[in-house]
Design goal:
single chain, MOSC_domain, three-stranded antiparallel beta sheet, MoCF_Sase_C, mainly beta, M1 Pyruvate Kinase, Domain 3, seven-stranded mixed beta barrel, MOSC domain-containing protein
């Protein structure tokens, strides 16, 4: 896997959170990340899994979905397909620009702003709720590669290694894990 993300520097375009389980999240000028927990004041914050379907399976699983990041380039692509999606509406906490989130290997660290560090754990697996938001959107955020493998384009999930404020306009820097790289899988 030939990856050159170390030179990538991105930007935070939007930050979002919502205290209860809801498909979309409210946008703010900034959010606070708490080490080992996630986004302060967000329904998915915690050491153990908070996603309802995963809680039903095993509420003691570690929470690998503390922070959800989506690349704003996906929104650009969706507009070209006739959809209109704004930051926070797909449930992400951080909307980025300039980083190929889906191409990062598992274990990549993203340093954001002055203190915050997120470790990328995997891909968001979009569910049928996305079609309740906008009909046909689920199919638009799924694709297939040249080998026929399913490509999930609805962002990546991560855990908070170092807490801190994340604000609109903050720089995002990529720190790749030690090789060999492991591709992202759904979490």
């Amino acid at each position: 896997m030939a990856i050159n993300h170390e030179s990538q520097i991105g930007e935070v375009l939007s930050t979002s959170r919502y205290a209860t389980h809801s498909f979309s999240k409210q946008t703010f000028e900034g959010i606070r990340l708490l080490a080992g927990l996630g986004v302060e004041g967000d329904a998915h914050m915690g050491k153990t899994v908070k996603h309802r379907s995963r809680v039903a399976q095993n509420p003691n699983q570690p929470n690998l979905r503390q922070v959800h990041l989506i690349h704003s380039e996906l929104f650009d692509e969706l507009v070209r397909s006739g959809f209109h999606v704004k930051p926070g509406q797909l449930g992400e906490n951080i909307t980025t620009r300039g980083i190929d989130l889906l191409g990062l290997p598992t274990g990549t660290k993203l340093t954001i702003g002055v203190e915050a560090v997120i470790e990328v754990t995997g891909l968001r697996n979009p569910c049928a709720q996305i079609d309740h938001f906008q009909s046909g959107l689920l199919q638009a955020v799924l694709d297939h590669d040249e080998n026929g493998n399913l490509v999930r384009k609805a962002g990546v999930m991560g855990i908070v290694l170092s807490g801190g404020e994340v604000r609109v306009g903050d720089e995002i820097r990529v720190i790749l894990p030690v090789e060999p790289y492991r591709p992202l899988e759904r979490v």
